[in-house]
Design brief:
This protein is an alpha+beta fold. The chain has helices at 42-51, 91-95, 120-129, 153-156, 163-167, 178-185, 224-231, 243-249, 267-271, 290-296; strands spanning 28-33, 63-69, 76-82, 100-102, 109-111, 135-137, 146-148, 173-177, 208-211. The protein has two domains: 28-217 and 279-296, Alpha-Beta Plaits (2-Layer Sandwich), CATH 3.30.70.20; 224-265, no CATH class. The strands form four sheets. A three-stranded mixed β-sheet has the order 8-1-9. Strands 2-3 form a two-stranded antiparallel ribbon. A two-stranded antiparallel ribbon has the order 4-5. The structure holds iron/sulfur cluster (SF4) (2 copies). The site of one iron/sulfur cluster has 13 residues, from α1 and α5.
């Protein structure tokens, strides 16, 4: 058995070497360490697999967001994986007209399966009320069927932690009674970055604690003029190098256009670059359509 780091506390609710039980009658919740998340989406795939979810928006019971702020050399990439936070004040339930409820054993917030389609419009209101956008629909239609994260209560009943938590290779997640989570990891319930802020936790009192990504540190010092020289050798309008020829040889999109300006023309372009070229440059939790949900939760850039 490898020695654990000083101060490390084994999580008794997801220990793989000892039996786990989940004492009932209390609120359970998550811990998420943003600095550990590498946006690999394994949590989402494990959730889809365990729960038999389809691909597409209806499979996003847990949504993995990635967004970029600033640009080289100050670029930061943020990841955030969001299941339902099974809030202590579930405003979704208040809006759902009886189609949702909070069960008392683990504090999970659930959709009544018999009403998932028949009360589609009520569940749309619940989606709007949820600060985190944690209800998904199988279409954009008025008769869409709603679904959401169940806290894996079927697994808790089998003394197994939620599968998104156990699947995470970097152990960005922990799960347990919210009181234990807060005792171990603190009570931060809102992540805020330069461009994005999570909702005010006082709205719904989410059963979660966060650790924010640490501030950026320069590991390798750089010289802006050296960087400028290197950057100017790249791109469709490069001043030197063989990039345009290679691009054509590999069936690229054509001759470099003289109308597109050089992105890196001076050292200040390196030290203070344009940020509007990045499409996903903020966290977007509510989506106008399933296509938009998939856009913001698909790491294809
Ligand atoms: S995260 Fe949203 S869906 Fe989940 S309990 Fe809170 S308000 Fe409801
Ligand atoms: S707790 Fe279970 S149902 Fe909820 S996101 Fe994680 S794996 Fe999916």
């Amino acid at each position: 058995m490898p020695k654990l780091p000083d101060g490390y506390v084994e999580n008794p609710y997801q220990n793989s070497t000892a039996p786990v039980t989940f004492p009932p009658g209390q609120q359970y919740g998550f811990y998420f360490d943003q600095g550990r998340c590498i946006v690999c989406e394994v949590c989402m795939l494990a959730c889809m697999n365990w729960n038999g979810l389809p691909t597409g928006a209806a499979g996003r019971w847990i949504r993995v967001y990635m967004w970029e702020e600033n640009a080289f050399p100050n670029v930061r990439i943020y990841g955030l994986s969001i299941p339902c936070y099974h809030c202590e004040n579930p405003v979704c339930v208040d809006a759902a007209n009886g189609a949702m409820y909070k069960e008392p054993k683990y504090g999970a917030v659930l959709i009544d399966p018999a009403k998932a389609q028949t009360q589609s419009s009520d569940l749309r209101k619940a989606y709007v009320a949820c600060p985190y956008g944690s209800i998904v629909f199988d279409s954009d239609g008025t008769d869409a069927t709603a679904s959401k994260c169940t806290m894996c209560i079927d697994r808790l009943e089998q003394n197994l932690a939620p599968v998104c938590v156990t699947a995470c290779d970097t152990r960005a997640f922990e799960f347990g009674p919210l009181s234990w989570i807060q005792q171990q990891f603190g009570t931060l319930k809102q992540l805020t970055t330069a461009n994005s802020s999570m909702p005010d936790p006082s709205i719904s009192q989410p059963a979660v604690a966060f650790k924010a990504q640490l501030p950026r540190q320069t590991i390798v010092p750089y010289d802006a003029n050296d960087a400028l020289t290197l950057w100017q050798q790249r791109g469709p309008n490069s001043l030197s190098g063989d990039y345009p020829a290679k691009r054509l040889a590999y069936g690229g999109i054509g001759t470099p256009s003289p109308t597109i300006p050089l992105v890196f023309a001076s050292a200040s372009d390196v030290t203070d670059p344009m940020t509007d070229r990045v499409l996903k440059n903020k966290l977007v939790l509510h989506h106008a359509s399933n296509a938009e949900l998939l856009y913001y939760t698909t790491q294809d850039e």
